[in-house]
Fold this protein.
Amino acid sequence: MSTDSEIIQRSLTQPAAFAELFDRHAPSVNASYCASMPRDPVELIEWFRGTLTGTEPENMDSAIVWSIVETLELNAAPPDLRAALYQALDLMPGLELLSAQGSVVTLGFRPVSPLDWRETVTIDRATGLLIASTRTFGEGSPIVLDDVPNFRLTNTISVVDSAP
């Protein structure tokens, strides 16, 4: 097994080798990141506010929503934190219910901010997982309509009995 230093040295000529560091350390980094987050939704919002240093005050709500959604997109948070993240989203201004079909709900956010930005999240309430999200920045154009997202993420998670 290579040491971290050996991997970094090798990645200078083989950039893809750097992925080994991610694979090696991502689980513990994610666990540490999740452990540092409060489980109370109001405290969680304040935690994000405290970590988003350098964010203009008028853009803070947008940055908090974006950060919460990015954390949920990983689908790696433990259930108690995932619940707190969803509850924190519910407390953010600009939230609207866009659709509900069975256990799947899509929420839209247009945070009060000078940024012309919209975010949607689609949640499967049966599993508690975020299954899709979109980000739309600014105005569209004559070719691309205003409501066409700039980014779309779809998550599919399956559980198997054993590794292939």
